[in-house]
Specification:
about 160 residues; alpha+beta; Beta-clip-like; 3-stranded antiparallel beta sheet
Length: about 160
């Protein structure tokens, strides 16, 4: 069975989490492939330069910034291109979608059934340093107030957050 085009499944709209988000246009099944994260292939050094520049300008304007997805240790996708709808999927500490890599392509699929109108989210997987540069507004249980991978949240709460008070 052919995968439906992403625009038959999703739409972009204002989000309660941050700026814009992607929303299910129809009910989506658990495990269903939803959209590919597309963009320009870049190296580690290009990624470092791009994200550094975008973090600085975004912080001043309180907006999203990076749109860079790490595929391998040395291969990244700069998703800040006009036709990449997937860049609008917001982070959540209790996501309903996940990213996965297949043949150096990044795809988003549903972790559970999604209802029409539901916002798509996934865990961006940031480490602690990336995370503290990115406030989280998901409000989910276990959220530490910053965008960071689940594996870092307990350590952050115990060891880093007290130092930030």
């Amino acid at each position: 069975m052919a995968t439906p085009t992403s625009t038959t499944l999703i739409y972009k709209a204002k989000s309660k989490l941050h700026g814009y988000g992607l929303f299910a246009k129809v009910d989506i099944k658990r495990g269903q492939k939803i959209i590919q994260y597309i963009g320009k292939s870049i190296t580690y050094d290009e990624c470092d330069e791009i994200t550094s520049r975008r973090y600085k300008s975004a912080a001043a304007e309180n907006r999203a910034y990076a749109f860079v997805f790490q595929v391998t240790k040395d291969y990244f996708i700069d998703g800040n291109v006009p036709n990449n709808l997937a860049k609008f999927i917001n982070h959540s500490c209790n996501p309903n979608c996940e990213s996965y890599i297949y043949r150096r392509e990044v795809w988003i699929r549903a972790l559970r059934p999604l209802k029409a109108g539901e916002e798509l989210t996934f865990d961006y997987g940031f480490d602690i340093l990336e995370g503290i540069a990115s406030p989280c507004a998901c409000g989910e249980r276990g959220c530490v107030g910053y965008v960071m991978d689940k594996s870092y949240r307990s350590y952050f709460k115990k060891h880093v957050a007290p130092l930030m008070e």
